[in-house]
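Progress against Task 2.4 (sequence-to-structure conversion) is shown through the following example record, which the project officer requested during the mid-term review.
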Amino acid sequence: MNEKNFAELDANFKSRTIGNCELEFRDGFAAPFALEGFPYIDSEGRRSRLPLDVARMCDKEGVFPMSMQGAGEAIRFRTNSPVIGVRAGFNEIWNGSNRGGSDGFDLYTGTGTESKFRGNRIIPVGADNFGGLWELSADGEFTDCTLWFPYHCATSAIAIGTVPGSTVEPPRPHRITKPVVFYGSSITNSGSAGRPGMVYPVILARMLDFHLINMGFGGSCRGELCIADTIAKLDIAALVMEFDHNAPTPEFLAERHEPFFRRYREQRPGVPVLMMSKCDFVPNEESKRRREIIMRTWMNAVNSGDRKVEFLDGETLFAGPFREDCTQDNCHPNDLGAMLMAVRIADRLKHML
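Structure tokens generated for the chain above:
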């Protein structure tokens, strides 16, 4: 981090305190902190989920700015500090309706299925920077920390503060050593989750303990081959395809779905791929046609000898007595819907990793 540039974001960044806590700040984008979810950085230092030159090639203009928003972005580390503080500046602040998710940071402590939510801190309305504080263990033991970023904000600089004299170490390795990529719509990007830790791919990343790369783009998952090529360049443990919603018609989906999968598969024949139909299934002819198109991609692959591809029927994701309560708007999963999705996807995905 360039300390001068960081301090210039706001005079408050010059302070070494948050509240009544005096803290020692380190650049959150540098070692020993581990940044996850943003595998790309351009010549101007812009971090992104998708290479920005590829984002400009996509059908929808919104992919470019969304590529720099924080869906799935996380910083992991270990510390024996009893308190941690976070200061951040932004290139974009969303001020969305679900502000705990679109404009909030979540801290989890522990690893994998043992990780516990420790609190959500929200960027104040109208602010262009952020300062938040979390209390950890006071016994001097090391705590594993994961800070999930606001899913709709573009964070330009971040500093992690610890009590002077405390130690910060790199995080423990994930149980799954390679990342898992999720490609999909706004449902994959964030849905209507109340905070960053409740987006369904993030829940899965905690449940199965892997490095998440979230390539969900609201209204803009169109199955461009340049994205298939980009994902194929990554060394990953699995690809999850939630490509259905943003195809404007079943015909468009048929034109794009199988070619996208085949383009990826030609370059990565051994990587497990899980493809899903939409979670908010309704029993009308269009929904059935869409599901049949995705199933045809799967069946064609299986019939050609592919043993690394599976299909998950989206109609089953909200199955149960609370199906109608799983979305905010009959489409985007709320926290209940995201949790049910994660549980059902995990049952399938854990056997593929």
